[in-house]
Structure formats: C-alpha cells, structure tokens
Write a structure and sequence with these properties.
Elements: H1 36-45, H2 76-95, E1 105-116, E2 119-128, E3 134-143, E4 149-155, H3 159-167, E5 171-175, E6 177-178, E7 181-182, H4 198-213, E8 219-229, H5 231-242, E9 248-252, H6 274-279, H7 306-312, E10 316-322, H8 330-347, E11 353-358, H9 366-379, H10 397-401, H11 415-423, H12 442-447, E12 457-464, E13 468-475, E14 482-488, H13 507-510, E15 517-521, H14 530-534, H15 536-539, H16 545-562, E16 582-592, H17 594-605, E17 611-615, H18 634-639, H19 660-667, E18 672-675, H20 685-700, E19 708-711, H21 721-734
Parallel strand pairs: 4-5, 4-8, 8-9, 9-10, 10-11, 14-15, 14-16, 16-17, 17-18, 18-19
Antiparallel strand pairs: 1-2, 2-3, 3-5, 6-7, 12-13, 13-15
Length: 741
C-alpha cells in the first residue's frame, strides 16, 4: 500500500520581574526549530538565548535546600532567601514576568444575587483603577450564616466542584481563569511590558479575586484553598506558590508545568515535553516561550516544577495523580513530591504534603472531589488526621542491599553468566505458545488509548508467558508470512506502549500500513502493569525488573514462534484465532530509551531474534559515573529500580562484570541499528561512539560488517514520525522481501 504521510519574586502578588540571561557566543543553538510563537515573543521582548555553558547541569531535580550556586540552606533566613531565588528562577525561565505593582480596586459591584435554600450566590464585578480600565466578574457562593467560613477557590469550568464545597460548608469563589471564561487577557494592554504567560496571568487574576474575598466578613482569611484539574491544576500550584494567602492547594492531574518536572516529562516518557508545550497552539501560551531553548537540554534548567510545590511549604499541598492519566506521569509526580518533601521536612510539617493516587485516567468524579475537600478539612483543622503517605515508585536500595545477594561472577566468567548476574536470579519458567485467555479487556484498551482495528490494520489481543497481555497489530489481507517487530516502549509509565503526545501515528499503526506486523505489550511497571512494578521486589527480591522485561520479550518470541504449532492440548477458548501468517525467521526488536536497553539485552540472549534496533537506548555503564551529566547508573539501580545489582558497584563502575559491548558482541553478526542522538541527556555520545567502534570487528570478522549500522544525528532524544520512518527504511533494506500491499 502507499506509505502514509507523516506529520512531518517582588511582592507576593506583584510576583517577580524577569531578569536578563547571560549569553555565550554559541548559546543561540536550538535543538528544536523556532516556531512563530517563539519568534514573535523573542522579537517583542528582545530575549537573549541562554549561555548553556554557564548553566549548571543537573540530571535529577535540583535540590530545593541548596542555592543555585551550591550553598546549602541551613537556617530559616536562608530558606527565605532561597524561596526568593526560586520565585525569580520560575518567573525568568518558566512563567514570565508579572506586574510589579498590584492594581487598586475601584469598585466591587454586585451584578446579581440568588438565594436558594441555605445558600446564596452573588455575581460580583471587580473594577480596577488601570489604564485602560479593566473589570472581571467572579461568583461568590456562601452557606447561610455569618461565618466566617473557610474558603475554596476554583475556576469557572470547575463550578460544580464549588457546589460540592458549598455543601461541605465552604465559602466558594469561582474566578474567571478557565478556557471557557478567561478574563485574564484583559490585563494584557494594561501591562504591555510584561511577558507573563497565560497560566501565570490566570493565577494572578485569581489573586485579584482573593484581594476582594478577604474583605468579606463571612470569609475566613486564615483558611483559603485553591484547587483545579489539569491546566487549572497547573495554575493552582502557581497561584499558591506565588501568593502565600492561599493556605492550601489541591493540584489535580496537573502534569508537566504543574507537579511534573520538565526533566522527567519529556519525549523519553511520551509526555508533555518542552518542545510540545512551546509548539502546540493550545499549550504554547501557557508558559514562557523561553522554555523552547531548553528542548533536549532540560537538565540545564536552573530549577524545575518541584519548586512550585516546595514554595508552598509549610502550607498544605495535595498532588493528585491517576495511574493511567495520559496527561500526567506517576513516576515524575512522585519525584517532584519527594524533592519537595525535603522543604516540608525542613519547615517541620511533612504531614502537610501528600500525593494521592487515583485509578483510571484523566477523568474525575464526585468522590474524587469529595476526597479533595477531605484534604481541605484536614488542612483547616476540621478533620483530625490526613491521609497516609503512599509511594509507588520509591525504591529503598539500602534495604534491598542488606539482603543476601549473589556474589558477582569472576571477571573471566562466561559472558552470559556475567550478564545473567546483572539481570538477577531468574525464577523458573516454562515456554508457552500463549493464548487469548487473559488478554486486555476492551475498556482497558480504550482507557489506555490503544489503537483499534480499522480498514487497514487489524489487532489481535493475546496473552503469553507469565500471563502478560499484549496486542498483535497486522496489515489486513496479508497472504504471505509477515515479518514481526516487537515494539519496546520508553519510560512511559502512564500509558505503556501506546504513549501520548506523539507526532504522527504510533508505531503499531505505522508499521502494519507498510507490511510489517507489530507485537507489543506494557513492560512491568508501566501502563496496565504499573502496580506490578511497585511490588516487584517484595515478590522477587533476588531478581530485577530489567530481568523480568527481558524474560517477557523471550516469552513474546515464544508466542510468535510457537503459535503455529498444534494446540489441541489447549482448551478451545484459549486457542489463538485469527492470527495473520507469521514469518518466525524475521522477528526484530525495536526499542526507544528504556526499550532500547531491553532490546539489546534480549537480542543478545535470544538467537531466535533476527535483528534489533536501538534508539537512544544505552550509554556504556563502566564510564557512566556520578560525574556524568546523565546522572550516572543511579538512574538504573535507584530512580527506576531496573537493576539494583548495579548499585553494588557505585563508585567503582569500571569494575562492573559486563557492559553493552558484551551485549553487542552477542548480537553479532545479526542486523543491528543503533541511533544515538548527539544530544541525548541519558548518554555520553563520545562513550557511545567508542563502544560501537570497539565492537565493529564482531561483525567484520564474520563477514557481516554491513549488518551494524550506527547513526549519531545532531538531535535530541525522541521517537516520533521521523524516527519511525528511519527504522522502516533500515528494516526494508535489511529484509528486502518485506510483504507490502
């Protein structure tokens, strides 16, 4: 068939003004092309590019209790100084510059009043002494009585959240800071010198509403909460971080730019990346376009979104995240929580910060909002206790290391034995051809935004190995046996193999349209298997999650190679039906980021795999120390808890029993594509290049030098339409007989 086209600081409520940025001679280099929005912003405000050489590199979240120059925060006065620095950095790099003076309110006019039962609603027009004159309209809902009542602020589209709060005895202010009612733009002509982004303007507008509400005798100004969902969750965090009169905040599924840091919410997580947030027409106005310079260089940002949470300390803050929220990431939100928790502990109130997990996706319901109001009750002393701390990603490596662990093999041990040690002690297994029983339910596939069948691409839900659910996508009508690609996803904790915020089609839809079947599944700890990862080391303390991932790939190959064998010994309801013809001699792995790491291990240990493609999937381990901008191997043995065994060599990484060169030599002479972008934050490009050069002989000595393809594009780490096309071209050149419509 024809190949489809690809898409190709000052006062608290004056906030802070932005400062200048130092510019180096080569600091104008952008890894993402400037957009019209960026070009217009830069021309209007004369913004100079960052001097990336002068900016510190921090793979993890910059410590909140440490000044940008590295000095520790040790006293309360120093913490106040650090807070001012954090506000300045947030405005300078993320939010833009708000007005330095607060406009005076000329009038508060009640436009309408409605009494219903034991409550009253007032529409109030707030008129400001500005040039030109600006007014905004808010709604105040209050229970009957004199009060004072604790206060909840929310945005227009969350008015029914406000009705629940009203029923719980709260005075509610609904302010115009939502897409359906955004009156913050009225202030743009008043302050043309400000480059404040939309969400900062909305948060600032909420604070202007707060100025009025605090004059009401029925409002308890000591107890004021602000809450919102999604983009409203982002602005709620911003408002509370910048205005200390908000004494509690609930940030619901706020995602990147809210509770999720830019460092962890990126292309390698199939999340809202800096590039996406500054390009997309909807999100491009939310934050400062200055961010676009940091596409692929997120580790150069002087702070990150955890600073919003930290600035709220010691006030109450609840971060709410759903397990499979397409606009949020559980891992990233938890990292932000853990980093901000240090500020809360320093302030002496760790109980005032919590993260709440919800089942499902981006949606909310009445019970979820009631839970948010429970948090307000706790924050305001209306409830005696708050929720316990529940973490699903934090890995206690010290506790793990105190358990009995197998000694590392000798340096001259067989390479497979050395690799096996790195993957942990694998439990017993039996090969199985798989079946249909236990395949993903339709509602789960819909929640995870899995592609369904259409006129061209078919889908068979399968189950294989240790009860792993997966999906086989294939071109409908294929007669000849099809080559199969096993797709291994990156750190996409929320949606697993499907991902979100893609440019162009997903790979499981793209390849079948070009004659290639795709078998894919969520890896342990991701997507539909998120909680399976959370409890993994309680169940398998001597194994590793990476080892389990490799085992699942082996089981997927079992499915593809054994599916055609007689299955009379299995009950009819478990037999695989409607499978397309499969060419078991053409099974190839393709993985991106985490998936690339898994793919190299799996291909090295399973000769049935005909070839492997690794996109931004590795950097040599023996040189990946804490001194590297990658963050070192701690990413694997602690952050993502993939290989705890590696932590035993912390500080002496050069002594590791195996490295990626060993894997490559086992892959040889089979076809292997390595795409290692020069600006991959998870890799040292020079180390990667040296590794590839050191293993070329493994192919050349077997007369297959051309089977190793290495490419180092001048790009950052991503796997979008361009990279899928690159893989397909390599695949077709490697196996020219690929079936095509």
């Amino acid at each position: 068939m024809k190949r489809s086209l690809l898409i190709a600081a000052a006062s608290l409520l004056g906030f802070l003004s932005s400062g200048g940025l130092a510019a180096g001679a080569d600091s104008g280099r952008m890894l993402a092309a400037p957009t019209p929005m960026f070009t217009e912003w830069q021309a209007r405000f004369g913004a100079a590019p960052p001097d990336f050489d002068a900016l510190r590199t921090c793979a993890g979240l910059p410590p909140l209790l440490e000044f940008y120059d590295g000095r520790p925060v040790q006293t309360a006065d120093q913490w106040q100084q650090r807070r001012a620095e954090l506000r300045r950095l947030l405005c300078e790099y993320f939010l833009g510059s708000p007005p330095q003076a607060i406009p005076q309110r000329k009038q508060a006019k009640v436009l309408a009043e409605n009494r219903e039962g034991a409550s009253i609603s007032r529409l109030v027009e707030l008129v400001f002494d500005t040039t030109p004159e600006v007014s905004i309209t808010i709604e105040v809902l209050a229970p009957e009585g004199r009060g004072p009542f604790p206060v909840v602020f929310t945005q227009t589209n969350h008015r029914r959240w406000g009705l629940l709060a009203l029923a719980r005895g709260y005075l509610v202010c609904v302010y115009p800071g939502a897409d359906i009612d955004d009156q913050s733009d009225k202030f743009l002509p008043v302050y043309p010198e400000c480059d404040w982004a939309r969400l900062l303007r909305r948060a600032w507008t909420g604070s202007r509403a707060l100025d009025y509400v605090l004059t009401l005798p029925e409002a308890d100004g000591r107890h004021v909460a602000i809450m919102g969902h999604s983009r409203n969750g982002k602005q709620s965090l911003i408002a509370a971080a910048m205005d200390e009169r908000f004494t509690a905040v609930i940030s619901s599924s706020s995602g990147v730019g809210g509770a999720v840091p830019y460092r962890f919410g990126s292309e390698r997580a199939f999340d809202e990346s800096v590039e996406f947030m500054t390009r997309n027409r909807t999100t491009g106005s939310w934050f400062s376009q200055r961010l676009r310079w940091f596409t692929g260089r997120e580790n150069k940002l002087p702070t990150d979104n955890h600073a919003l949470v930290g600035l709220i300390a010691p006030r109450h803050c609840l971060i709410s995240t759903a397990y499979n929220d397409g606009c949020d990431q559980t891992f990233s939100a938890e990292q932000s929580y853990l980093a901000a928790r240090e500020a809360y502990r320093f302030a002496g109130h760790p109980e005032a910060l919590r993260i709440a997990w919800r089942p499902g996706g981006h949606e909310t319901c009445a019970e979820v909002i009631e839970g948010y109001l429970d948090w307000c009750d706790f924050a305001f002393g209306r409830s005696p206790s708050g929720p316990p701390e529940v973490l699903i990603h934090q890995f206690d490596w010290e506790a793990w290391s105190r358990r009995s662990q197998p000694a590392p093999p000798a340096g001259d041990a067989d390479v497979r034995q050395r690799i096996a040690w790195g993957l942990g002690e694998e439990p017993p297994r039996q090969a199985t051809p798989g079946g249909t029983y236990g395949s993903s339910a339709a509602h789960l596939a819909q929640m995870l935004d899995r592609g369904q069948e259409d006129g061209v691409v078919g889908r068979v839900a399968v189950n294989f190995g240790d009860y792993v659910a997966g999906d086989l996508y294939y071109p409908k009508g294929a007669k000849a046996p099809l080559p199969v690609v096993i797709w291994l996803h990156p750190y996409s904790y929320n949606l697993g193999y499907n991902g979100a915020y893609m440019v162009g089609p997903r790979i499981q839809q793209f390849l079948p349209r070009n004659g290639v079947a795709v078998l894919t599944f969520d890896q342990v700890g991701f997507g539909s298997r998120l909680l399976e990862g959370a409890r993994f080391y309680q169940r398998y303390p001597r194994w590793s999650r990476l080892g389990k991932m490799v085992r699942d790939v082996r089981a997927a190959v079992d499915l593809l190679t054994l599916a055609g064998q007689p299955d009379a010994d299995r009950p009819p309801e478990d037999r695989l039906k409607n499978l397309p013809p499969i060419d078991a001699q053409r099974i190839c792995l393709v993985g991106y980021s985490l998936g690339g790491t898994v793919a190299l291990h799996a291909a090295a240990l399973d000769s049935r795999i005909a070839g492997v493609a690794c996109f931004a999937g590795f950097t040599p381990m023996r040189s990946d120390t804490d001194a590297k901008p990658t963050g070192g191997l701690r990413r694997f043995w602690q952050w993502h808890a993939l290989q705890p065994q590696l932590g035993l060599f912390h500080g002496r990484e050069s002594e590791l029993p195996y490295d990626f060169d060993d894997l490559f030599r086992l892959v040889a002479p089979r076809p292997c594509l390595v795409v290692a972008p020069e600006h991959d934050r998870d890799a040292d490009p020079a180390d990667v290049a040296r590794c590839i050069e050191s293993v070329r002989s493994a192919w050349a000595d077997r007369g297959a030098a051309g089977n190793l393809a290495y490419r180092a594009p001048d790009d950052y780490s991503r796997f979008q339409a361009d990279q899928q096309e690159e893989f397909l071209k390599w695949f077709e050149a490697t196996w020219p007989t690929t079936a095509r419509d």
